[in-house]
Amino acid sequence: MWYDKLNNKRLWKIFTEISAIPRESGNEEGIRAYLLSWAGKNGIEAFSDKKGNVYMKKAATAGCEKLPSVALQAHMDMVCVKKEGVTHDFTSDPIKIKTDGVKVTASGTSLGADDGLGVAMILDILSDPKAEHGQIEAIFTVEEETGLGGAYAIEPEKITSRRLINLDSEEEGIIYIGCAGGIDIEANMKLKYEKAEGQALLVKVSGLLGGHSGGEIHKERANAIKILARYLNRLPSFRIASINGGTRHNVIPSSAEAVIIVDSDEIAMRMQKMLQEELKDEYSVTDPGITITVTKTELPSIAIKAKKSQKIADFLFTAPHGVKAMSSKIEGIVETSDNLAIVRTDDDKLILHFSVRSSSESAKMALSYEIMTLAEAFSFKVKAGNSYPAWAPDPSSKLVKETAAAYRKITGRKAVITAIHAGLECGIINSLIPGMESVSIGPELRDVHSVNENVDAASAERTAEFVKKMLPMLK
């Protein structure tokens, strides 16, 4: 097997089984069936709720009956993205995992360690005959990546624990005790077409790193939609036949393209060369693979009228994207940001999606209104979609203190206690279950929500072992 040279064979075997099951958000039936079957084979009580979340319960081991019940939580869905030209079918094909002995990655697609590895860690703990613990309640949620739908649907009466360890963060040695809230925004515009006449060009922006719009937004990586709009903004005149970019609301767009009609391709080609040189310099460190190409293509039958085409390009060029404000409360943490996530032409409509995040509810709503007001000024119709609350940090929490003490005792190192800009389910679960205390931990994951997603194998094994050793230390 691919993991023969790694140490925790049980962990990686479980992760391989999980990765063989299609589990894009909204398509969790297969992974749900696997979890229920796995529990039955291992003699663990398990059930699901109306939403499709799965719950497991395992009694305390001998000598640990007086320890508090602890909930271990992860989400079963994943973000599915693939490299251009890769034929992987996320509705049927298994993720092809590989390792060089240090990093674990996938061939041509996202890996799904977010949060398949969290699920695998929990099952590894539950099936380890040597693990000592009080009662464990495992919670596996659905639809985390598309609006935290599973967390909202959790049925509080099914859970007795008042301590929750979330295994969905991405940096070893960091204990997260808070996260940003978020809201999604959709803008759409009715399109008017006319007969296409002139030279058709295919404009493509590719080679970007992309990444998680919460975890990587501060890294100043390029947004392919913004780069495409920057190019269009330089053209004296054009008509858009189609424009598409981005894949998910929580993924920084790594590619975008448009078919445009121009009177002459001379200026278009010259602008491409100039912009490519600028991008090469601007993103030499943060996004060195960024490429913009312009090639002649077959003339489509119709194109969006010139005025509307210009209006679309102007809005995409001026629309905010990236870090809006850094936190004044926690040094080095983003407070507020937005991701211009998706643009697509859909028959007679242009549809845009934004994802806004903030640890401040008022700042979150202010940026949302800013985007919606700007969109309306450019004749878009807008509506706010999914919204989820921030998870307010509580450094005085007993669970936080015990987790930090356990980390120091087990590893000999002091953990960093902080908050994260990405959204986590802890805030929702805490709001639904009075008295619940939460922490979030995880191994070293990089470039999640992208085709470059990878996990440090040793870090994953250390994190799984840490949780096992910590459980009997919680009092």
Topology:
Blueprint: H1 9-19, H2 29-41, E1 45-48, E2 54-58, E3 70-75, E4 97-99, E5 103-106, H3 113-126, E6 136-141, H4 149-152, E7 163-166, E8 174-179, E9 181-190, E10 193-195, E11 199-206, H5 224-233, E12 239-245, E13 256-262, H6 265-282, E14 291-296, E15 302-304, H7 306-318, E16 322-326, E17 334-346, E18 349-358, H8 361-377, E19 381-388, H9 398-411, E20 416-420, H10 426-432, E21 437-440, E22 445-446, E23 454-456, H11 457-470
Helix pairs in contact: 1-3, 3-11, 5-7
What does this protein look like?
With 475 residues, the chain is α+β, with helices and mostly antiparallel strands. The protein folds into two domains: 9-180 and 391-473, 3-Layer(aba) Sandwich (Aminopeptidase); 183-388, Alpha-Beta Plaits (2-Layer Sandwich). 28% of the residues lie in helices and 28% in strands. It is built from eleven helices and 23 strands. It has helices at residues 9-19, 29-41, 113-126, 149-152, 224-233, 265-282, 306-318, 361-377, 398-411, 426-432, 457-470; strands at residues 45-48, 54-58, 70-75, 97-99, 103-106, 136-141, 163-166, 174-179, 181-190, 193-195, 199-206, 239-245, 256-262, 291-296, 302-304, 322-326, 334-346, 349-358, 381-388, 416-420, 437-440, 445-446, 454-456. The strands form five sheets. Strands 9, 11, 12, 13, 14, 16, 17, 18 and 19 form a nine-stranded antiparallel beta sheet that branches. Strands 1-2-6-3-7-21 form a six-stranded mixed beta sheet, sandwiched between helices. Helix 3 (113-126) packs across helix 11 and helix 5 packs across helix 7 (306-318). The longest helix has 18 residues, at 265-282. The radius of gyration is 24 Å and the shape is elongated. The model has no long low-confidence stretch (mean pLDDT 95).
